[in-house]
Amino acid sequence: MPPKTKKSPTLSQIQRPPAEILHAAELQQLRDRDGIAPRPQNWQLTPRSVLDFILGNADLKIAPKFVGTRSLLERCIVALATNRGLMLIGEPGTAKSYLSELLAAAISNDSTLTIQGSAGTTEDAMKYSWNYALLLAEGATDRALVPAPLHRGMQQGKIVRFEEITRCPLEMQDTLLSILSDRVMAIPEMEDEGRNLYAQMGFNVIATASTRDRGVNEMSAALKRRFNFETIPPINNLRQELELVQTQTDKLLAQANIPLTLPPELTEILVTTFHELRTSKTSDGKALEPLSTVMSTAEAVSVGYAAGMHGFYYNDAQVTAEHLVQSLLGSAIKDSVEDVKKLQHYFNLVVKGRKGERWHQYYEAGKHLV
Ligand SMILES: Nc1ncnc2c1ncn2[C@@H]1O[C@H](COP(=O)(O)OP(=O)(O)OP(=O)(O)O)[C@@H](O)[C@H]1O
Ligand SMILES: [Mg+2]
């Protein structure tokens, strides 16, 4: 049989390269700076460089990636160097997954050891399974074993990411218990020393859970004890959120080969709308009815991206307030009739009175809110 050759796609063809590939140059720069400086065993970077990679460092020209406080991030990094896992919880779209990816990329130079939690998550998908042809031919050997993320993380001393852990049935969460406390995985099918896989230094787990999913599967108290919890808050500084939405939207548009950027006045309208609806309060203190839709920063970015795309292809590359309103319906509000009504109310109560041509156009475009 001729050898299978797979042509790997170039970076620009990959929809979403993992952080360690996307930021390979920055990670290399930090590794060079670190040299042989002390760090937790098997970490690719020192804890200080992990922080610089994620929050940015102007002197080193490292771009900031996650918006959050330094103290929160320091606690996350320290937790990963201890014998407990790190649990990131918060509202949807607050960058829990993104932060866990950045941490794994910085610490292990590999963010791909990821288990996706769902009702159907099995032990095989977490620990290991078998290549049955090899299993029958040679028995339970290393070659016949197909490692899943936990196995690989323990063997290679890397960070394993466990997404949406509370969506997993409790039995599956329990699988993690012994691994997190004893740091050993039993492989009963194997013989002799193969029966136990001991975790290498550097192995740890970052789990994420959305507060909206609570109650689907409550986490057991035993598992809770094996994690340090950190709550990731939404960005509450309007200026920081504006900057983030602008850069991320423009980056997505550039990746899609769309030669335009979201006009800053529109970004301001977009982020202000999200901010006010999320906090149920306008900048001048008026109370608003809370929406059931999560008005997260991640959603704001997707509204901006869709509006840019819409304007480029259907309006001679001009993005207008109308595109924002249309994307707001499709990308953010989705199917909630109640929320559309509340949004109409927001337009009549708040947007109508705002000064400036763009706000006026935005209000006019509100007629699409049906
Ligand atoms: N504090 C933040 N710093 C950087 N990006 C942020 C921040 N908050 C939100 N974002 C945006 O959110 C996107 C990532 O969202 P992500 O999927 O990681 O959220 P999540 O909290 O895991 O959501 P979910 O609960 O739905 O899984 C980022 O790409 C970025 O555009
Ligand atoms: Mg997530």
TrEMBL record:
MF-aspect GO terms: ATP binding; ATP hydrolysis activity
Domain (ATPase dynein-related AAA): residue spans on this chain: 86-227
Top-level taxon: Bacteria
Name under which the protein is recorded: MoxR-like ATPase
